[in-house]
Amino acid sequence: MDLKLEGKVALVTGSSKGIGEGVAKGLAREGTIVIIHGRNKAKTEDVAHDIVAQGGHAYAVVGDLTHDDEVQRLVADAQAFVRPVDILVNNAGGSGETEDWATTRLETWAAGYDRNVLAAVRVTARLLPGMRAAKWGRVVNISSLAGLMPSSKRPDYAAAKAAMIAMTASLAKAVAADGITANTVSPGTIHSVSLDEAFRKVALNHGIAVDAPWTEIEQTVLPMFAQVPVGRVGTLEEIADAIAFLVSPRASYITGTNLRLDGGMWPGC
Question: From which residue to which does any coiled coil extend (predicted)?
Fold first, then answer.
């Protein structure tokens, strides 16, 4: 299926590694011009160079999304590279400190909300005028299954990710008449570099070689982390493909939704 993304311009925040990198590379494979964002200049430029080496089109911008002035600068940099951004994927964020209700601190909640929710608001607010003027745009906010299935640990993170789901639903209603869609994607357990390293450390403690095949690691360790009905973790390619469809012209009637990529973990599936 041709997603008709050739020549569209996408800014993917937090795309110097992990899920963001996977999404950016997936969009590039569909012909999208991708703006890679990160806080580490070298890592951010490495991802952009890798995309270009594979025949894609990419640029790099650097900045901390918790600072208004840096967001203003990086958005200006992005739009200086190429015409106004059509697509925004708000992926930057993260869980931060591992705290539970016995150790949680107010400053952790504030920092987590700033890093996840307000970061997305800052970038979105600066790109919406251009999308409205063009009468076309796509916004995808990356939440987490934790926003729907919070555990007793990291309550601040779960609350921030739940806020992103509500925020996206509100945005979708506000911009629907302008030809802009806004959707949330909530990943479950995804095979990123960090997850791979964490699983292999646990496997080593259970007598499995750290360099064992991933399938062996996955089958042994996954049940200790999560009960996934499909019996495996998701891949970066699967997230990238889902987002590529959501931001494409073919998904123009899908807005305000929260797409779970969780292998059936959500109750009721």
Answer: none
CA dihedral 123, 18, 117, 261 (to 10 degrees): 110
The residue to which tokens 């025949």 are assigned: 55
Pick the CATH number of 9-190+235-261 from 3.40.50.720, 3.10.129.10, 3.40.50.300, 3.30.390.10: 3.40.50.720
What is the value of pTM for the model shown? 0.94
* CA-based max dimension of the chain: 59
Domain boundaries, the chain: 9-190+235-261, 191-233
Rg over CA atoms, the chain: 18
pLDDT tens digit string along 26-49? 999 999 999 999 999 999 999 999
Task: Please answer whether residues 145 and 162 qualify as being in contact, where contact means their C-beta atoms are separated by less than 8 angstroms.
Answer: no
Share of the chain above pLDDT 90, in %: 87
Q: Which residues contact 207 (CB under 8 A, 6 or more apart)?
A: none
**113 classed as catalytic:** no
Q: In terms of Cα–Cα distance, which of 106, 132, 16 is closest to 65?
A: 16
> Span 201-223, mean pLDDT?
91
Residue 145 Cα to chain centre, angstroms: 12
Q: Which of 59, 113, 157, 253 is catalytic?
A: 157
Query: What stretch of H or E contains 185?
Result: strand 180-187
Tell me the pLDDT tens digit for each residue of 127-162.
999 999 999 999 999 999 999 998 888 999 999 999
